[in-house]
Amino acid sequence: MSTSRFECPSFSLTLGALLRRGKVVVGSCAAAAVAAHVSLTVIRGLEPEQKAAKPLTTQFVKRQPRLTKPLELKKLPRPKQRTVRRKMVAVRARATGRRVVRGVRPVDMVRTLARPDVRFGRLAGLKSARLEPQALAGRIAGSREDKHVVDMSLEMVDIEALDTGEFHAMVIQDPTDRRKIKGFFHLLLARPMSLSDFGGRGSGESVWDDFKIAFRRLVEAMNTWTQIRVSVAGQITFDDAELFKVPWVMTPIPNREMNVTPSEAANMGQYLSAGGFQFLENAWGCNLGVYVACRRIIQDIMASVRLVEGRDWSYERLPKDHAVYHCYYDFDVPPYGEDFANYHARKGGGYDYVPPRDYLEGISIDGRMWILFGQKGYAIAWHDWRPGGGAVSDDATRVLQFGINTVIFALTQEGSITNRVMDSVRY
To answer: What is the phi/psi pair of residue 229, to 5°?
Structure first.
């Protein structure tokens, strides 16, 4: 085999054979790719159809408006500091026709004794002459009644300086101590006109003189044992207009024939409905005849303002925890009075006396006591304490202390005349 100088390693290659081999290889690969693609398509087509997930949605819910205000945190404004200047201006009071009375002073009291200022009506006698002081009172609270406490904003006021003659009574009490009470009270003695129609001992003017002594002893006891300054300003009848200025009226009935006139009953009924308080009692304690007279007088007074017993009012026995027993001194039962002495001295002698009762009765309307009805004979006991039988001490301290309780209860009872006047002064 001859060689040429132009021969090379690729001289022996056949291009046609190489082309054919390349076509075979490319065709085989293409066929394999198509077969693989077709098989994969067939396999995916056999899979179960899957549902497409729903798109996310938002639901709007309308709520009812709230009634409460939402919590808000706000910064509290700080008040600006201001400089206040007080300018004092001298003001001259205008002259009016009203007379101004100064507070009570020892010098004035002496002058009054030397030259009393007493006014008389045209038909007034010497015995009906009376002074004209008035008074104001505030409520207090005892240990058993602590929801009506006096406003102590008046504590800094000079209580005696307020006694200008315009009011009859005024009291102020420390709500933490019922014994820390101070004030003044000018007492007017009220009596029915029929008292002078009877004669003899135990009735009429003679027994009224005893009652006046009894009231003076009660006044002395209050001036000694309390800080309430009390004086007797005069005497009036039940039909007097001055009755509406008195916070406490005591009416001892000494005779079974006593009564009140229609004008007296009407005036007393209006006084009680306006906030007054009457302590009406059987002067001899347990005398049945006088007891009937007392109930008859009460019936006439209540009927004058169209109040019917059993429908509008009734007698109620006071419980042991009633305020009248504890507003200043403490009592479990009302103390003995003239009832004990009369019963032991006169029983079996033909007198209509019954054993002493250990209770008092009250007539209250709308939560306020109008009448305190007793059969203990305290007015006679204050004047002439006669215990009798040795069963009771000869000391009249307890009967006087109970009298003080009735006065303080009347001065401070919610809805009383003086309590209303106190509210008007306070505001």
So the answer is: -85, 120
Q: Are 315 and 361 in contact (CB under 8 A)?
A: yes
Q: Does residue 65 lie in a domain region?
A: no
- List, for residues 326-381, the tens digit of each pLDDT value: 999 999 999 988 887 776 666 544 456 777 888 999 999 999 999 999 989 898 88
Structural domain count, the chain = 1
Burial (CB < 10 A; 0-12, 13-18, 19+), residue 121, is exposed
Beta-strand pair 368-374/361-365: antiparallel
Q: Identify whether 77 is part of a domain.
A: no
What is the domain extent for residue 417?
Answer: 129-426
Round the CA-based radius of gyration of the chain to a whole number and report it: 51
| Cβ neighbours around 388 below 10 Å, total | 15
> What per-residue confidence (pLDDT) applies to 117?
43
**Phi (first) and psi of residue 68, to 5 degrees:** -100, 145
Tens-digit pLDDT profile for residues 87-119? 665 544 444 444 434 444 444 443 444 444 444
Among 296, 419, 292, smallest CA distance to 367 is for: 419
Tokens at residue 357, please? 């009762």
DSSP SS3 for 168: strand
- Phi and psi at residue 248, in whole multiples of 5°? -145, 125
Residues for the chain: how many in total? 427
At 248 the three-state DSSP class reads: coil
Q: What is the CATH number of the domain that holds 295?
A: 3.40.50.12140
Q: Mind listing the pLDDT tens digit for each residue in 1-37? A: 555 666 667 667 777 888 888 888 888 899 889 888 8
Smallest Cα–Cα separation from 254: which of 282, 295, 296?
Answer: 282
**Residue 29 domain-assigned?**
no
Contacts of 394 (CB under 8 A, 6+ apart): 385, 387
